[in-house]
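FORM 7B: Structural annotation worksheet

SECTION A. Query
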Amino acid sequence: MEIILIAILIIAVLAFIAYPLFNTTRAPIAATSNEMDTLVAQRDAAYDAIRDLDLDFQMGKLSQDDYAPLRDKYRARAAQILQQIDAAGGTDTDAQIEQQVAKLRRAKTESVEDEIARMRAQRNATRGAVLCSQCGTRAQPNDRFCAKCGNKI
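SECTION B. Predicted structure
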């Protein structure tokens, strides 16, 4: 009897582990995002190749005769990839980040300016007013006692 229970338990565990392998419903992957990621990766690879080529030339590993055609080839490939990115309507992530930062800075500046205006209005409203020394409540010009705490003004 114990062997049967152990066998059932093992089968249940294996089924639980294998379930994701046989599950056919998968979330659809956005093709445009994947295509843009591929183009950006190709662009970065082309830039890295140009950087490595320049370093090899500066270190003396490549002659001028080998360096010039390779650099032209990599530059043409990078330009082609950049054209594909532009055609796909891709915007640079850095530009998007900068736009969001500028938007947040404008909102912060506006909120700071609103706070300053509110504080100035409050200060102007209390100028020349008599305040209670005990609780800080504003008193009327003819009051002799505070209306809130009863302290003598």
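SECTION C. Observations
Residues 81 and 121 are 57 Å apart (CA to CA). The chain has two domains: 29-90, 92-153.

SECTION D. Sign-off
Analyst initials: ____
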